[in-house]
Each structure stands twice: as structure tokens, then as C-alpha cells.
Amino acid sequence: MQKQYLRLAKVEGPLIMLEGVDDVSYDEILQIDLSDGQKRRAKVVRIQGNKIIAQVFEGTSGISTTNAVVTFTGKMLEVPLSKQILGRTFNGVGEPMDGAGPIVSDKKYDINGRPMNPVARMYPKDYLETGISSIDTLTTLIRGQKLPIFSANGLPHNQLAAQIVRQAKLKNSDEKFAVVFAGMGIKHDDYDFFKKEFEQSGASSRVVSYINLADAPIVERISTPRTALTAAEYLAFEEDMHILVVMTDITSYAEALRELSSAKEEVPSRKGYPGYLYSDLSTLYERAGMIKGKKGSITMIPILTMPNDDITHPIPDLTGFITEGQIVLSRQLFQKNVYPDVDILPSLSRLMKDGIGDGFTRDDHENVQLQLFALYSKVIDVRSLSQIIGEDDLSDTDRIYMEFGRQFEEKFLKQGAYEARTIEQSLDIAWDLFKLFPKTELDRLEDKLVTKYGRW
């Protein structure tokens, strides 16, 4: 028989507190029955001896210490899953938002998942094409990788996320591929944007969305990425599909953690965030990967907005430690009307070296990537010099670099929001740009590749 509690010790903000509680688990779900017939759910977020603190999913409005009966279910938050989730939209705790009815399945899964055994992990190698030149060529996404996008307020990261969802595919493969999209704290107009983009592009049939709106409770926001990742694990490791998980915005998630931590009166760490922010983020990011003996995979692109454009802020800082690289968006390029505004110099993909080249993309990929980085880094130096002495006083070679910088941003980095380029097209654009230079400046290209692809 389940034990019921007829009186709350305290109601504060989104939290309720009970005393005299025993045999309870962290993250356990509570059923709350109000005297007016309403039913709500809560999740245990703190245990102190015989006292517990729980956060109510629907908020505590209308709850007092005497009008609620609390029952402990003995279960964590679970969601029913089947292949019918593809093409559907749910809220952050797995409840349908699209009016198509609930998912009927005998299988229910704990959203907290299980840690992936490091020994069982497979090393990611296969290339995943996004159709975006700056990503595919210079910060290549590898299947099974965690590659975050560092953006900032006002930059078009939502547009970029939608483009990646529309265009992402496995290169030269007929294997089953799908996208899990998790939106945390997004505005209603952003939700409408994503919904319309997926429907109009025809990608909606292979996308399952978990949406937490900005006016939804923060406990749902904290559950959203876990619910989405649980769905991704089901599709990848039980249905043998290759899954791309796109999550936006991790900053909204971290701020929900901070709000919850403050309500629990925990001692804050850097900038008010809880001291366990690193370990909490790792429980999300480390659920991506490939497992030996399993055909499917989970590739992750978390998107976060850097407060005050500060890449040393705790959220991007800790994310960079856990993930395998980053794609950094540039406000300066955005102001030049360059989309996607990827700042290639601080961007990197730590796993790309083993997933590019002959047999994966094209034999010249690594050389082209190294040469583009070398040339563009020199462009930045020459631009700094021109601001001091003026462009007219630059040497002839420096003027070539200035022209290369302009054309590189206009022809290579810049592309349409609905323009999908193959890796071959992106590499060919790079070779066309190399024609601006004498061969002596192109010291990262092997002679055999210059002979094969050069167009001098």
C-alpha cells in the first residue's frame, strides 16, 4: 500500500517540502491530489534525512500546506516510446503537443538513462554531412560526436539549427537516419518557426521534437533534454537508427538549474550557478556516442548562447571541456551579412582527422582544411596591419590576402539558408579561391593534389 502525506511542511516558489518521509529516492515522482480535484506531479530534487524537497511540474499556484495529499509513486519519470514517435511533437516530459494522441507502447523508459560504459564505446569515424561548407570542410561533424555551437543573443543560431535538421544526412549511406530536436525555454514564435521549417521542408516525418516553451515550468525544462535523449537512445540502440540530436538552448537549461539551486538554498559557485553544473552537463553530453555491438549511433549538436558574448562564461567553458570541439558564431561576420556566421579560427572538431580524406570525404580534404586555416589566420593579421598603415600601403602579397579574405567570406562561408552543398562542392570552391595566390604561398597543399585539383 502506498503511503500518503496529508500535510506539507512548506510551499515556496515552485517547491514543496515534506517532513517525516522515509524510503524515498532522488528524482522519484510524486502524485499530488488537491482538494478541488486537480492532480499534479512533482519530482524529488533534494533529500535531507527525513525531509524532502520536490519541484511541482505544473507549478504550486493554488497549493497550500493543508489542501494537498501527496503520494510517492516509487518510480522515476518515464515516457512510453515506439517508432511512432517519429514525426511527432511532445512537451518536455513526453506529453503530446500536436493533438495526435498519446503514444501507445508496452515499453516505458526512465528519462535519466544509464551512463554509457566507456569500455563499450566505439571510436567515431564516419562523416555526417550538414550541407554547410564551413562545418563540413573546416569543423567536420563525425557520427557519434558531441559538437556544440557557441552562439550569442541576436545571432541566427535558430536558423542554423533548422538548416542542419533539414539537410543533415549520412554520406553515401542508405542506413536509417532521424533527428531528435529538443527546444528548452524557447519562445512561442521560435517554436512556430521550427514547426513551419520542418513541415515545409518535408523533414518533419523523420524528426521527433521535444519542446519546452519559455512560459512552461522550469522542472519541465530540466527534464526536456533527458526526455529527448531517452528517445534518441531508444531509436539508436533498439531500432538501429543513426540519430542526430539538436538541443537549443543549453543556456536556458543551465539558468533553470541555477534557479532551482537557488530555491533549494544551495551554496552557489561561479556566477551563481551550482557547483555541480559540470557533472550535470556531462550527464547530458555523455549520452551521445556509439556502442560496440549496436548498429545505431547518437550524434549531438547542443546549441548555447554565450551571455555577453563571453566564451569564458561557465556554460561554454564547461561545455568545451566535455565535448569534442566547438563551432563558434561571430557577431562581426553577422554584421557583415555573412550567414552562417561561423568564426573558423576558434572553431574546431577534435575528431575530424579520423573521419575525412580518401574513403570518407575526398583525398584533398585535410590539405584544403589546413590551407584555409593558414590563409585566413594571415588575413586577420593583414587586416590588423591595414588598420594601422592603410590598405594602400600594404605589399602586393598582403593585398592578395585582403582580397582572399573578402572572397572567402562572400563565396565560401556565406551560403543560403536553403542551400545544401556537398563536400565536393565546398572543396571545389576552396580550390577556386586558391587561384588568387602564387603557388609559393600555398605551402599546405601536396604537389600531387595541386596537379589533380589545381586550376591555374
From TrEMBL:
Entry annotated with the keyword Chaperone: no
GO molecular function: ATP binding; proton-transporting ATP synthase activity, rotational mechanism; proton-transporting ATPase activity, rotational mechanism
Protein name per the record: V-type ATP synthase beta chain
NCBIfam families tied to this protein: PRK04196.1 (NF003235)
Organism the protein comes from: Criibacterium bergeronii
Keywords noted in UniProt: ATP synthesis, Hydrogen ion transport, Ion transport, Transport
UniProt entry tagged with the keyword Transport: yes
Record InterPro entries: ATP-synt_VA_C, ATPase_F1/V1/A1_a/bsu_N, ATPase_F1/V1/A1_a/bsu_nucl-bd, P-loop_NTPase, V-ATPase_su_B/beta
CDD domains: ATP-synt_V_A-type_beta_C, ATP-synt_V_A-type_beta_N, V_A-ATPase_B
Function field: Produces ATP from ADP in the presence of a proton gradient across the membrane. The V-type beta chain is a regulatory subunit.
